[in-house]
Amino acid sequence: MSGHAGHGISRRALLGGTAGAGLMATFPLAAGGLAAARSGDRDRLRIHAREDWNARPPRQPAQLLDHAPDRIIIHHTATPNTKDFSLEQAYRLSRIIQRFHMEEWGWDDIGEQLTISRGGHVMEGRNRTLSAIRAGRHVLGAQLRGHNHHTIGIENEGTYSNAPVPAQLWSSLVDTCAWLCDVYDLDPSQAIRAHRDFGDTDCPGDALYDRLPELRSEVARRLRGTNEHIIWPIPRPVTKSLSAQRLVPPQTRPES
Ligand SMILES: [Zn+2]
Question: Is the entire prediction scored with pTM above 0.85?
């Protein structure tokens, strides 16, 4: 959860979400980059852009940093473990999180860069995320207090204190991490970390946390398995310097 430790989105916020009809169009990512996430004739990873889930505009554009993130942070949303695996539920989730972050916490936009639903649907989070990733750069999010300048956050729908991670979510999480490691030239064994590794929180829950070694292994295997026939269309990061630290704009409440 990108926010206060141990606090998920309130049930009121969750149940109060409007279920507007989401657009079905998906964001076409560069073929090579996406092919990196999956091999052979398997489906390519699809990431649904903000327009698809009908995001509201940010209060101000997110900051685009000139370096790549060096860590991928795994969160859970601490929301109910819904049995609704539909795309509409995924879009609704993104809208609920965005409204919660903007209205309850006064942030400029949804905090995390990427969101994955229990049905395995992957959504763009903070504005400018997809264009930043495609350019090998990093858009400043609000998901890991004190470390946003060098980490990219993935919010996984559900509460994984002890509940198992749905196979659909897991598969998309592997694909997404493989894609990010590919684009940013990251070693999954070093890059993939949990929220709790950086702060006083249970996030992403024991059940998901315990599977991070498996996640790193699967991502590494995916990357090894696809390296030979991938064409890399995505520019490598310009620099990995951390010169853009402390660019977090003042907020009514500090983004975390
Ligand atoms: Zn978290």
Answer: no
